[in-house]
Amino acid sequence: MEELIFPIFIFVLAIFVGFEVITKVPPTLHTPLTSGSNAISGITIVGSLVAAGERNLELSTIFGFIAVVAAMINVIGGFLVTDRMLKMFKRKK
Amino acid sequence: MIPSWAVNLVYLVSSCLFIFGLKMLSSVRTARRGNLIAAFGMLFAIVVTLFDRNILSFEWIIAGVILGTLLGALLAFTTKMTAMPQMVALLNGFGGLASALVAWSEFLNLSGPLNWFLLLTIVLGTFVGFITFTGSMVAYGKLEGVIPQQPITYPLQKTGNLILLLVIIGMGFFLFKNPSDHRFFWALAGLSFVLGVLPVLPIGGADMPVVICLLNSYSGIAAAIAGFILMNQMLIIAGSLVGASGIILCQIMCRAMNRSLINVIFGAFGKVEKGTTSKVYEGVKSCDAEETAMILGNAQLVIIVPGYGMAVSRAQHAVRELADLLEARGAKVKYAVHPVAGRMPGHMNVLLAEADVPYDQVFEMDQINPEFEQTDVALVIGANDVVNPSARNEPGSPIYGMPILNVDEARSVIVVKRSLSPGFAGIKNPLFENENTLMLFEDAKAAVEQIIRELKET
Lengths: 93, 458
Known about the structure:
heterodimer, B: alpha/beta
């Protein structure tokens, strides 16, 4: 039980940080926020890499491979499209 | 080989970069750098993970990374700004799928005595991940028009979904009794697939902003659960940040539609109550582009209210050109954006930015509402329910209490709309009958281009 408390601690505190940070994002940027945070949720790539890196080809390796592809689309697509959008926001000259 | 404390140190740095990146999204000026910083956090995390001692072969990893990168880049560069909601739905889905498969492959690698917490998180991760995946695919299909945008209803909608959920919980229970019996796991995964599809089907197009935010939140939660499975703090932190972000946006959207979040999560908002009041319009005055150009030509302050109709006909560039013309004649032009205009939060802002409209000319509802009284012309382009005064004046109306843009307070209102057909809420809009309202029945882009031509001639 002892080792479970620690990650739950992190989880709860991170949610608080999330609320604090996200509420400050202006409505103008809500679409880039959605796509950008989406890219961050592609962090599962870390788990996918380990699953895809097994020596023997088993079902779990195949799942790992698909997960790497999906997470990579999420990461690359998310960050690039967010940048493409943010590039367009300009002040009045 | 890198020791595990060093790997975790890099993960800590990545977590901080994610938080910094999101923090910099609080201002338009720093937002782009913020996104870049978060992307670097991701890069560090990926690179250091490749040194993990559990990774023994790289063929599949390299193939997966290359394939995913190409597909992701292709999507990012080819997607039209009007199609951004679909793109986000698709990305949400892929995030969910990755998390579910990570959980599943951890299940396949389970060994030794039963660790109930690990099994619980694996089950939860698979469940949330697959729901996110199939739910997002349905949302994508609806936004893209592959699946009809109208609410698709079926018998026993709520009861059926509840029973399905109970069956999934039952499967989980049996799995705990026999962790080695993979059939329960397959059943659980398959039913989660189905449970993702069913609740999204009944949701109509204009409610998509809420669904997108909710699925965004789910994809974050799925990543956080994967963090619990792998006991990886960075995943927990990044996942919770995204989970919180989705929930906050969801709340903002719900408030802007006067619906509760609970009402949304339990899928009770499939069918909006159709208004019982008559939909017959009386005394509607219509006008043509020439007349509109004349009225706009004499205005001092013009507020443009874009809605989904502008996105559909891709009229944002024409709208910008019109605004430039009016400004050249000495008028002041502002844009008013309702929180749920379009198909995802901030959709209109991105489209206007694409057309080079400066962001300091675009205002949110609460900022701009007091200004309509002094406005000469409110030009409504492809918006309907968000400017319906029934929300303010008729306690019996299904949308009563929803905050709206008070365009009816402007000296004159011009509504560009193809017909008098009702908006998503399916109710009459008394604005169209008002003394000071003129209707320009035309597709948004065609109408604005005609107005521009007329203005240039005078």
